[in-house]
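Chapter review: from sequence to fold.
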Amino acid sequence: MRVTAAVAALAAVLALTAVAGPPPTRRGDQVDDYHGERIADPYRWLEDVTSTETQVWIAAQDAYARSVLDALPGRAGFRARLRALIDYERFGVPQLRAGRYAYTWNRGSDDQDSLWISDDPAARGRLVVDPLARRADGTVSLAGFELAPDGRHLAYALADGGSDWTHWQVHDVAAGRDLPEVLEGTKFTDIAWARDGRSFWYSRYPARAGGGWDDGRQVAIWQHVPGTPQSADRQVYAIDDHPTRNPYPLATEDGRYLVIRVEDGYQTSGLYVLDLAAPQAAALRLFDRWDARYEFLGNDGPVFYVHTTQGAPTGRVVAVDLRKPAPEHWRELVPAAANAITAASLTGGRLLVQYVADLRSLVRVFGSDGRAQGEVVLPGAGTVAGFTGERHATETFFSYTDYTTPRGVYRYEPASGRVTPWRVPAGVIDPGAYVARQFRYRSRDGTEVPLTLVHRRDLPVGTRPLPAVLYGYGGFNVTLLPVYSAARAAWLEAGGLLAVANLRGGGEFGEAWHEAGTRLVKQNVFDDFIAAAEWLLAGGYSSPTQLAIWGASNGGLLVGAVLNQRPELFAAAVPAVGVMDMLRYQLTSANARQWSSDYGLSEVPAEFRALRRYSPLHNTVVGTCYPPTLVMADANDDRVAPWHSYKYAAALQHAQGCANPVPIRIERRAGHGAGAALGKLVEEYADQWAFVAQATGLAPPPLP
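The token string follows.
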């Protein structure tokens, strides 16, 4: 972001003066016509995030926010506790290929995880890349990595300043050095190594004539040979008969097929297949009906194992023969069950299928013929991830966490079913000092919705109202399961309650639960969240002067919409990096139009009417007393553009009918959340919890 001398001078002046309230924001005269309805958009000019006027506005808002946040008595205490709680050794789930283990590591205080490789799972091994060596302020982060099948090369991606854009490099494992080429123009791509390790496939955006990459168009799949420049890469596959479908590569272990995962929204997907033994043959569009999601797991020659929601909203696993791919020839291996499948893998000759059961992970084991072989014994009633690896691997790894247990990594042996700790943190907090209890409440239309309440064991919960934070998401089939967070631990340790609501729109109960919170019925999500707040108040757990709401991204939209609809319920609100202008969200970024599978589009009359009714930007009411609200934005966010938060903060400040503060906190060198420097996260949550504690009456942690 460009900062002019005038902007810097204004920021310096404002920082030295007492800022009594938010600076005024110019209201323009922009009006748009949506299907005959004229909608004012007075803050359209803030969408030009690099203009001098927007820069001046940011500087003024930053000065106002700091005048509010720096004066909070609890900020220093929360900052100290967050720094202490996050300072423990952390390992990522290792990736195993040809006897080599690649994994991430953080000593605890590092701003970013580093990437390591070892030939011995008991040894640290050697450092491959330290993002802090690339930029000392911690704003370059590791965004992904993939070991070649022969273990000779390792491709890894870095992101700068929180951007979704990544650049890939290739590391020669034996030589211990990076190869010279850098691959650019990528976001969200898989790396699919050829079986011989001599090349890999990846997806990238087309180059612009004047330089840079055009993320307003579709990606295509390219093949890269390590040691050669990106300019020598060969395009392998592109979709030219549909404007919004994006192909991403996967490769079969036997080296025979390139599997193409085709994405277009969040409810359906496609799978195409290229036969590498017949390079002139057209791609087989194995699944191209766009009636469900299809996830490739592995293959036995022409027989593909696929996890799908076709005919099964909670998911199932089927075997499909490429020679007879019609549905009537499919062989069902794992039938649909009451519990939703969240992931599946074909590892160690077995199908490892992950379910959501009673808001926790459950992992069932099946033979490749579909015969049930039992369950994986997990460390507790929490959340797992991992279980990936090659078809004949003798070991695989997974992570485990819950609300009071930091993420640890475990080794699983498919043949014996044995689970052993690999790297498990100890002594971070005392899990026995906390309680996590599940409840169910009824939403506005009578639907039962789960909620988990987490708190210190010694608190008089339910006997008198206490400061509480209600958190939710409710979108894109995302499932909220128990996860440890140092940020949440700081709130809980101080004596606050944490309530997590599993709203419709998520994936807790399969695709039907997801679809019940999308498009024309998106209001169900907000009704569920409001009902959760009402349940907490009616049960005496909290009160309108003690209850705060918090959410990020789609959860930021949730908080903004609910804050507008029922401001009297809440003592404070924190909408972070939210989608706030629902009539123009599709202009947010290149991939934003993909969100229409959940939101709909303002170009469609019925969907416009639904969006107009809840869009946070368009539903603030002048003169309403809104609770203290801390809007959070990241200036480098190229997924949900920061102008969403800029415009909403301006609208809320203009509408505010009482003295409650409405600051907007804008982080300059950060994006949508992934890859944020640890130090920046500490400062962010110190601001957030101090703000919420002040509004809800929670006593902050004492200074050490």
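Two observations follow directly from the output. The chain has three domains: 90-251, 342-426, 433-696. The first strand starts at residue 31 and ends at 34.
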